[in-house]
Amino acid sequence: MQKAIKKYFPIFVLPTMIAFTIGFIAPFLLGIYLSFCKFTTVIDAEFIGIDNYIKAVQDPEFIHALWFTALFTVVTVLVINVLAFAVALLLTKGIRGTNIFRTVFFMPNLIGGIVLGYVWQLLLNGVLAHFSRTLTFSEVYGFWGLVILMCWQQVGYMMIIYISGIQNIPGELIEAAKIDGASPRQILRHVTIPMVMPSITICTFLTLTNGFKLFDQNLALTNGAPSNMSELLALNIYRTFYGRTGWEGVGQAKAVLFFILVGVIALVQNKLTRSKEVQQ
C-alpha cells in the first residue's frame, strides 16, 4: 500500500500544482516584474528599474497608511486575543447554555466584510450622531470604529481555537495544582497559559495577518475618509493602482512591499511564539 501511494503520488499532486502555478505563482512572478515597469496594461509594460519603489516609499499617504495599519494591528491583536481567551475561559467552566453562547459568538465571523462594514457604519454613525459626529469626522473615529468592527467579527473565531486548547489541558495538572495550594490566578499563569501556547501562536498569527491585510471592512466603513487619513495599507494600494493615473507600477510596487512586510512580520511572530512553546 505504501509503495502504491509513493508510485502514484505525483499523479494526485500534479493537478493541484498546476492550479497553484496558474492561480498564484505565475501572477505573483508577473506582478514582481510589473513592479519594475511603467504600464497601463500587461502588454505595454516598459522596464524602468526601481523608480516605482522610490515613488512608493516617498508617498506620504503610503507612509501614513503603513503606520496607521501597524497601530491598528497592534491594538486589534491585543484586544481580540485577550477577549477571546477570557470568553473561552468562561465558556469552559461548565455553565449552562455554553453551546448557544459559542454559536452566538462565532456567528459574526460568517458575515462578509463588506456587509459588516455597512452595518457597523449605520450603527456607529447612529450613536455618534448624538454628539454631532460621524466616523469620517476624524481618523480617530474611523480607527476605533475599525477596531470595534474587527473585534466583533473575530473574537468568536479565536474563542473556538482557545476553547480547543483549554479543553486539551490534562485534568490531572489542574487537580495537582489545586492540591499543591495554587490559587486560580496561579493556575492560570503557570498551567493554563503555558499549556495553550500552541493556540496562542495560531491566534496571534491569524489576528496579525488579518489586521495587516484588512480591506473590505475599511472600504465599507470609512472608505479612507477623511482625506484618506483612515486608510489602511490594502486600501491605499487599491487606490494607487486603480485611482491614480500613471501610478499603476507604483501600486504594484506597493503590493510587493506589502507582501514582503506581512511575510516577514508573520515569520518573526511565528518564530517568537514557537520559541515560547519550546521553553514551556
Question: Could you describe the 3D structure shown?
Answer:
With 280 residues, the chain is mainly α. Helix content is 76%, strand content 1%. It contains twelve helices and two strands. The chain has helices at residues 2-34, 51-58, 60-91, 98-106, 113-128, 139-167, 171-179, 184-195, 197-212, 216-221, 233-243, 248-279; strands spanning 37-38, 46-47. The chain has a two-stranded antiparallel sheet. Strand 1 (37-38) and strand 2 (46-47) form a beta hairpin. It is globular, with a radius of gyration of 23 Å.
Strand line-up across the major sheet: 1-2
Termini distance?
A: 39 Å
User: How much of the residues is beta strand, in percent?
Assistant: under 5%
Gross morphology is globular
Low-confidence regions: none
Number of strands: 2
Number of helices: 12
Structural class: mainly alpha
Helix content: over 70%
**Major sheet, described briefly?**
2 strands, antiparallel
Question: Mean pLDDT, rounded to whole units?
Answer: 87
**What gyration radius follows from the Cα positions, in whole Å?**
23 Å
Order of helices and strands: HEEHHHHHHHHHHH
